[in-house]
Specification:
Helix content: 10-25%
Strand order of the largest sheet: 5-4-3-7-6
Distance between the termini: 40 Å
Strand content: 25-35%
Order of helices and strands: EHHEEEEHEE
Shape: globular
CATH topology: Chitinase A, domain 3
CATH superfamily: Transcription elongation factor, GreA/GreB, C-terminal domain
CATH class: Alpha Beta
Number of helices: 3
Radius of gyration: 14 Å
Number of strands: 7
Length: 137
């Protein structure tokens, strides 16, 4: 399968700082994922929190996406690692899907590598801000 170019990424300045700290802290435990997150952050457009468009996936956003390969839709809420509960649909930003979705706009389509090493084509269908963008803790 041909890889789709990565769509633009938009992050708020306060989220960027915390994500960079999380990625750097996980370099020893999960270097591939940390490197992927740092790569995404390095190419991100950074905005003040009050300028973040509502249709961009941020911490607290409910993101519905379709796995084009499997024809399956799923909704997750992007959260900080300490708030993650995949059974409740809360995906940590420090998981492969969290890294893939953070900062993407509704309509974005991209190639994603699963934890099992499979390559999938995903499309972001909707982004709904479940909570206001919270400042870094």
């Amino acid at each position: 399968m041909a890889r789709t170019p990565r769509p633009p990424v938009t992050i708020t300045s306060d989220t960027l700082d915390r994500l960079e700290r999380l990625a750097e802290g996980s370099l020893a435990r999960n270097p591939d994922l940390a490197d992927r997150l740092l790569t995404e952050l390095a190419r991100a457009r950074v905005l003040a929190p009050e300028r973040m468009p509502a249709d961009v996936a941020a911490i607290g956003s409910a993101v519905t996406f379709r796995d084009e390969t499997m024809g399956r839709e799923q909704t997750v809420v992007l959260v900080w690692p300490e708030d993650a509960d995949i059974a409740a649909g809360r995906a940590s930003v420090l998981t492969p899907i969290g890294v893939a979705l953070i900062g993407l706009r509704a309509g974005a389509r991209f190639t994603w590598d699963t934890r099992a090493g499979e390559t999938r084509e995903l499309t972001v269908l909707t982004v709904e801000r479940a909570d206001p963008v919270s400042p870094a803790a």
